[in-house]
Amino acid sequence: MKAAVLANYGAPENFQVKEVEVPEIKDGQILVHNYASSVNPVDTMVRKGALRLVSGLFGEQIIGSDFAGVVNASKSAHFKPGDEVFGFKNAVAGHAYAEYVVVDEDNAAIKPYNISFAEAASLPLVALTAYQGLTREGKVMPGQQILINGCTGGVGCMAVQIAKKLGAIVTGTCSAHHMIIAGELGCDEVIDYEKSGIPQDGRYDVIFDTAAQLTLSDIEKSLKPEGVLVTTKPPSDDLGEMLSSAVDLFRARMRAFMVEPVAKDLEVIRQLVEAGELRPVVMKTFPLANTGLAHKMLEAESVTGKIVIEI
Q1: Which of 56, 93, 130, 303 could be joined to 158 by an S-S link, Cβ 3.0–4.6 Å?
Q2: How many C-beta neighbours within 10 Å does residue 284 have?
Q3: What's the CA gap between 34 and 54, in Å, rounded?
Q4: Looking at domain 126-256, what is its CATH homologous superfamily?
Q5: What is the pTM of this model?
Q6: Phi and psi dihedrals of 60, rounded to 5?
Q7: How confident is the model over 141-171, as pLDDT tens digits?
Q8: Confidence band for 92, pLDDT divided at 50, 70 and 90
Q9: CATH code reported for the domain at 2-123+280-310
Q10: What values do phi and psi take at 69, rounded to 5?
Q11: What region holds the Enoyl reductase (ER) domain (predicted)?
């Protein structure tokens, strides 16, 4: 099979399309003939070697999280050959930038019937991040005031739509040239973050920082007394910031989380897409041979939605 192999950690140019062996499956797994993947910020971190203590210190790597394709072989009671599926693997485990990918049965769900494989591959990691952040961490309820920081990025595009489905009143922050898109996604109010800060009037029940830029001290006056900051920000290496975050977490005003590939949540995403209540946002697609260019675009530009790799 063909795969975009990372010869060495570092630059996007280090990807090389090579022929590699088709992996074998174990009990509880499926082999997916993979038609598309996508580029997530965590994938660029793996590519650069920032997670090499977990992903491996040496040797060639096949990275990538999201997948969408057709089950080729199955040792799972939940899927059979021919099923169209989508989902994502742990980013460190990777292997989604390839024609075939081995997937644990609880990391996949049946693909929405009304979208393409490329569109399906754009969804899993970002849609589940948005869904789990809003429902599990933010516990968003109808009528609440929600602010989504980075509302036109990969996670942000999903979060706006899901928050509206949950009945929230949504404010989004983005750059000026993305404000029209933010409105089309469903934002009730849009703030140009380059000109205006987040309102310090204590109106928000939840602030969802999809851009992983904010601290509680930045927005504490923007939150209601019981309001919370939900963030995808990873732990910091800075001691002062670590201590500040620990205090915020102890006070239960900030909830930092990592998305989990859960089949039942993927099923919710499928239902939302098929009902027309959640739509993929794909900015550009690249062939597998141009995986490096896809990474360059994500790192160099202000991307709306997702960049997809067609395999």
Answers
A1: 130
A2: 16
A3: 24
A4: NAD(P)-binding Rossmann-like Domain (3.40.50.720)
A5: 0.92
A6: -70, 150
A7: 999 999 999 999 999 999 999 999 999 999 9
A8: confident
A9: 3.90.180.10
A10: -175, -155
A11: 10-309
